[in-house]
Specification:
about 220 residues; 4-stranded antiparallel sheet; two-stranded antiparallel sheet
């Protein structure tokens, strides 16, 4: 006890005993240990969340890649025959739609004279032109040099799109192949509203072959050579 000067008060001061100090130290250590456990657990939880998120995104990306490989042509990046056959039943049969049948000219001649690498370059050049021309639609590679495009557009746009595709081909030049040409036929859904998609595409194919025959007659090349 310590008397307070000029007062009747006495200050009582209490100091912890050795046992109390020991208990206080143990309590502090326990609190520190608890905080360490909580911090470690929180860090581990965050790491698990990051790993789970990364794994999920990686798996989804891998599945998307696998699905794309199933539906897309590996060389051109266009939809493949499998996707075409599956989507044929879902191809629109109402509204303003155009169906294009397209063949790459001189592919066999290019393969025979310049090699298959040149033929591949020709096909990839054709795909690039079609992607540009039919942006917003779907383009399918259904055979070696055979393609189908379906796009929502008015009947009047058909000739414009065909001319646009020919212009893109004219302006394309590869490293192994200098020229690119495609034969194009198209049918508007308005022309045959009662026909099924496969029938309409067959009609577009007939028109394409008329243009293809004219091309080979003009070039003087036998299309089988």
């Amino acid at each position: 006890m310590v008397p307070v000067k000029d007062t009747h008060w006495t200050l009582i001061m209490s100091f912890p005993s050795a046992a109390e100090k020991k208990l206080q130290g143990q309590a502090n250590k326990s609190a520190q240990s608890l905080m360490t456990v909580i911090s470690t657990s929180l860090i581990a939880y965050i790491i698990l969340i990051v790993i789970f998120t990364f794994t999920t995104l990686h798996r989804e990306r891998r599945l998307a890649e696998q699905a794309k490989q199933l539906d897309h042509d590996g060389m051109t990046g266009l939809f493949n025959r499998r996707a075409y056959d599956e989507n044929l039943a879902r191809i629109p049969t109402d509204g303003n739609y155009l169906y294009f049948a397209i063949d790459v000219n001189e592919l066999k001649r290019t393969n025979d004279n310049l090699g298959h690498a040149a033929g591949d370059e020709l096909l990839m050049g054709a795909a690039k032109c079609m992607k540009t021309c039919f942006a917003g639609g779907k383009v399918y590679r259904i055979g070696g040099d055979e393609f189908v495009a379906v796009i929502k557009a008015t009947p009047e746009s058909g000739k414009i799109l065909r001319q646009r595709l020919h212009e893109l081909c004219t302006n394309w030049h590869g490293k192994k192949v200098k020229e690119l040409s495609m034969s194009v036929g198209f049918v508007s859904l308005d022309e045959y509203p009662d026909k099924k998609p496969r029938e309409i595409i067959a009609l577009a194919d007939e028109r394409m072959y008329l243009e293809k025959s004219a091309f080979y007659q003009q070039s003087g090349h036998n299309r089988r050579r």
